[in-house]
């Protein structure tokens, strides 16, 4: 049974670290807005 508790503790610590990294990326990294141009070929406008 102690090995199960050790395994669950390791999994919980790893999940906590991953959650912390995702939280930090979501709150402290700001994306830079920029222009975006998409070229659509003319045959997409033709009805079939």
From TrEMBL:
Q: Please, which domain of life does this record's source organism belong to?
A: Bacteria
- Give this protein's Gene Ontology molecular function annotations: kinase activity
Keywords per UniProt: Kinase, Membrane, Transferase, Transmembrane, Transmembrane helix
* Transmembrane segment boundaries: 6-26
* Name recorded for this polypeptide: Histidine kinase
Q: Native species of this protein?
A: Bradyrhizobium vignae
């Amino acid at each position: 049974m102690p090995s199960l508790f050790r395994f669950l503790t390791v999994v919980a610590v790893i999940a906590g670290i991953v959650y912390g990294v995702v939280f930090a990326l979501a709150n402290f990294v700001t994306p830079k807005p920029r222009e975006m141009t998409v070229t659509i070929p003319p045959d997409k406008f033709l009805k079939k």
